[in-house]
Every structure is written in structure tokens, then in C-alpha cells.
Design goal:
By secondary structure, the protein is mainly α. The chain has five helices and two strands; from the N terminus they run H-H-H-H-H-E-E. Strands 1-2 form a two-stranded antiparallel ribbon. Helix 4 runs antiparallel to helix 5 (about 95-115).
Length: about 130
């Protein structure tokens, strides 16, 4: 008997599908390819994050934000990330799990935007520096 729940299996399918989409996205692919050295390890870590976030497991520790602050993330990446997450969640998760993932994803993008782009530029757009 397997100790992996159907929800855990669905989360893994979601994460794998998300990265399939992100790695073919014209803006996201370069960011991920430069940042991720070991894809199997990274996918496992992200599966642990979503399992912790959505199912309440204790496999992921620490703030996700810290792992991202050194990356060259641009404002436009957030909409593309959400679009890939939306497509992957719709394709791989039950409607209930997909909504939970997307609610968390929207919250994370808002938090990451606030942390990574804390200033308004002269043109009124959010910026990394004053």
C-alpha cells in the first residue's frame, strides 16, 4: 500500500506541469534555467512547499520569499507565473485544490511584489530602487 495520497500525487502533477509551461515561456524560461541547477531536487522542494501550504504537511520549512530575493525577477514575471500556475492547476488538480493553490499563488505574488518592488518610480510604476 502506498503512503502517498491522491492529493500529493496531484500536487506533484501540478508542479511538473507548471515547470513544463514555465520552461517554455519566453520570459520565465531564462530565469528558471539560470536559477535551477538540479531540476529533480527543485521539483521535490516545490512539491514539499505546496504540500505544506495546501495539505498542511510539515515537509517544507522556512520562508519562500528568501529563496527568491536574489533572482532577477521583473514585474512582468508575476502575471506570467500566475498564468502558468492557473493553467497547470486547472489541468491537474480538482477544482477545490486548484482554487486553494491559486488563492495562495495570488497572495504570494502580492507579497513578493511588495517586497521586491517597494518604491514608486518617477513614472508611477513600482521599482526595486528609489
Amino acid at each position: 500500500m502506498s503512503d502517498i495520497s491522491p492529493d500529493e500525487t496531484a500536487i506533484r502533477r501540478f508542479v511538473v506541469r507548471f515547470y513544463e509551461l514555465a520552461r517554455t515561456d519566453s520570459e520565465l524560461s531564462g530565469l528558471f534555467e539560470k536559477a535551477i541547477v538540479n531540476w529533480d531536487e527543485h521539483i521535490g522542494l516545490v512539491c514539499d512547499f505546496w504540500s505544506h501550504t495546501i495539505l498542511g504537511t510539515k515537509r517544507y520549512k522556512g520562508p519562500a520569499y528568501v529563496a527568491h530575493i536574489h533572482l532577477p525577477i521583473e514585474w512582468s514575471h508575476f502575471d506570467r507565473w500566475l498564468a502558468a500556475a492557473q493553467q497547470a492547476s486547472t489541468e491537474t488538480l480538482t477544482p477545490e485544490l486548484a482554487e486553494r493553490v491559486m488563492a495562495r499563488g495570488r497572495h504570494m505574488t502580492a507579497s513578493f511584489k511588495a517586497g521586491l518592488f517597494p518604491f514608486k518610480g518617477p513614472d508611477g510604476t513600482w521599482a526595486k530602487t528609489p
